[in-house]
Amino acid sequence: MLLAALLASLAACTSGPVRRVSEPSARIQQLTVQADGRWSLQLRIENFSSIPMRFESVDLALTVGDADAGRVQVQPGLSIGPESADVVTAVLAPQAAGKLAVADALAAGRSVDYQLSGRIGAIPQDGNRRDFEVERRSALSPAPGLPGVMR
After folding, report:
1. How many whole angstroms separate alpha carbon 149 and alpha carbon 32?
2. What is the pLDDT of residues 59-76, one digit of tens each?
3. Rounded mean pLDDT of 110-133?
4. E strands of the chain, at which residues?
5. Domains assigned to the chain
């Protein structure tokens, strides 16, 4: 009986931590309207996996209010640790309707809803590249004291 308990204890020690790959998420941390009308987006990429992931590509359609604003496309080449997040910057030349929705929200000092939908390509540690479907709805509000900035 003692031998069986000892073998069970040793087997439990050799299994190691659970390796779970979960779908990542992305959200806009900050949107800054630049002088030339383009937007600088600080995109927060969240790794919910229990292992590090290398994020290779982001291709997301951005809708602001009810208006199509364009596509956020970036190749971050960024490794993010387990259950962690990091920020990448993307520059977007927004479509007119999206640009007007953000300008209106900034002028009125109110928030505006947005949606990101598309794919994020990532490589789990010691694994093969996978494309993950992403859909995120949230809102941005004007940052007090920072003209042209929404968070």
Report:
1. 5
2. 999 999 999 999 999 999
3. 95
4. 25-33, 39-47, 53-64, 67-74, 78-80, 84-92, 112-124, 130-140, 149-150
5. 20-141 (2.60.40.1820)
